Amino acid sequence: MSIFVYTASELYNWLIAKENMILLDVRNDKDFARFQVEAPYPFEMINVSYYDFMEIEDECIARIPRDKPVRVICAKEGSAKYVAEILHKNGYDDIGYLQDGIKSWGNMLVPMLLNSGEKYEMYQFIRPGKASCSYGLVVDGEMRLFDPSRNTDFYLNFAKEKECKIVQTFETHLQADYIAGSRMLMEATGAEFMANENDFSGARFDYTKLKDNQVIRCGTAEIEIRVIFTPGHTPGSTSYLVDNRFLITGDAVFLQSVGRPDLGGKVDEWSNVLFATLQDIQKMDKALLILPGHYIDWHEANDKLCFCAPLGTAIEHNKNIYAIDNKADFLAFIKANMREQPEEYTTIRLINANIEQVENDKAEELDLGKNECAASAYAAQQAENK
Predict the structure, then answer these.
(1) Is 74 one of the catalytic residues?
(2) Is residue 381 scored above 80 in pLDDT?
(3) Is the pLDDT at 132 greater than 50, yes or no?
(4) What top-level class would CATH report for the domain 4-104?
(5) Is 3.30.559.10 the CATH classification of the domain at 109-344?
(6) Are 275 and 232 in contact, with CB atoms under 8 Å apart?
(7) Is it true that 4-104 and 109-344 share their CATH fold?
């Protein structure tokens, strides 16, 4: 069998199908530790640097089992192809390398329909490489997006396949951990950019200012989107209640954590605001389905591999957080579970406000890597273990 090229989507499908294979990551130790492939089920992954293959080829070959297919991955594609050729030369006969390297995995989106057989479609677009989710509401030939990533081609192609037009794009807050796609989609399609001015007042582009408790009706089916200001993670954090059923929470409420209020450098002030928001959240219908902006890992997924759970379940899972009944203790919890935010977050905020522009390669570099937007004891422990 000759060497072949595979896509990020093919890799994802192999992983969820539990294919018996080896994923060989040939990036250096630092890059591998910062960001690597994760999947719902266990799989075998080996990290052997491309440079080691150049210098101590025989030792590297000895580390790679011969009884399984090998799928090679690197930063940009070229190094993986080089290693694949070495393996092929040494008798390995089922070898593929990832097209466009790790960035293709980082940008990949997986569409999941959350409801079916109804007068509208609610989609969760899972981004495994970022542990994040964006959303799409399709009603009467129109699509509305929530927190889209910079992979705008995906959303445009998806809309084309669904024979619908992207008419509005909503942001839950000014993102710090990834470069948002709303402005680019607005420029490409003319879609209306909807956002909370408490986050976007300094943005250098036109957008429609949202109002708390505002209701947006969609299509002849009149599916309602209710705007609910849920500040704390940022001053302008906003949730969207779709059809009085799905609550898109951005980084305010997660399934197994809550949003961290320290990213703006005002942990005391924002912690108090987030505490009040969480008190309000607990008064909402516990049957509402939470659609978070991020997840910690695949253990949060349900049996359909979607990140969606009733509000009551999320509150129960985080009962130690929600049980805190005063601002002082909540602030103490936040400070005990803070991690240093990545350096690139400041730049990403400026890009998302269109205050700063960067070349595509730099944007790719900034955009890779898992999010750090949750406040939880688990997340703090993970940071200590790195």
Answers:
(1) yes
(2) no
(3) yes
(4) alpha beta
(5) no
(6) yes
(7) no
